[in-house]
Amino acid sequence: MNKRKIGLAAALLCAASAPAVASNWEICELKVEVRDKQTDRQALQVRVLESQAKGQAECPQAGTALSFRPETTDYQSELPRRQWPKPGTTVKVRYRYLDGECKDRGPCRIEHYSPLQK
Prior knowledge:
This protein is mainly β. It has one domain. The chain has one helix at residues 3-17; strands spanning 26-38, 43-54, 65-68, 90-102, 106-115.
């Protein structure tokens, strides 16, 4: 083989073995009813009332139960527990996810839930 064919073969081999990289955050706007603040797991329990996809996002359907730890609107940290919505309230939540490859786990979904300011 000449050098050009060897270089092309090496490039194809590297491309085939490289992990997939996620490229776009998918976003859903959810209206949820807060059911409970679990103290043992420290997660917010909600039921989806309405769901609106931005673009091609796969959003939870109405009636779906979710459990998550609310984050700030910039997704940089968790909200302090005292700022979590109270049980019985209805709030809007931005659900954002990114599908990709996680180290040592294979395909995975990174998810963020952020209550929107009123």
